[in-house]
From TrEMBL:
<protein>
    <submittedName>
        <fullName>Lasso peptide biosynthesis PqqD family chaperone</fullName>
    </submittedName>
</protein>
<dbReference type="InterPro" id="IPR041881">
    <property type="entry name" value="PqqD_sf"/>
</dbReference>
<dbReference type="InterPro" id="IPR008792">
    <property type="entry name" value="PQQD"/>
</dbReference>
<dbReference type="Pfam" id="PF05402">
    <property type="entry name" value="PqqD"/>
</dbReference>
């Protein structure tokens, strides 16, 4: 399922990944390059399987592990209210 950030979440890409600002709470989140790839894939309309495939290819990791990591990241972003 494609992902969207909440309206009050600002993003900025850096040389180290992506920084998210939750404007409601003032909390910052820093995404490493792997998480940035996952988020970019989902924001561009891909699903979790697409994101896992991109991670497995880009970072030479096992596809099953990549799928678990993608699912965990998406759960965390959604449960925190940063994304839907």
């Amino acid at each position: 399922m494609p992902m969207r950030f909440a309206a009050d979440v600002s993003t900025a890409e850096t040389e180290y990944g992506t920084v998210l600002l939750d404007e409601r709470s003032g909390s910052y989140w820093e995404l490493n390059p792997t998480a940035t790839l996952v988020v970019r894939t989902l924001l561009d309309g891909g699903d979790e399987a697409d994101a896992a495939a991109a991670v497995a290819e880009q970072f030479d990791v096992d596809r099953a592990q990549a799928q678990q990591d993608v699912e965990a990241l998406v759960r965390q972003l959604r449960s925190s209210g940063l994304a839907s």
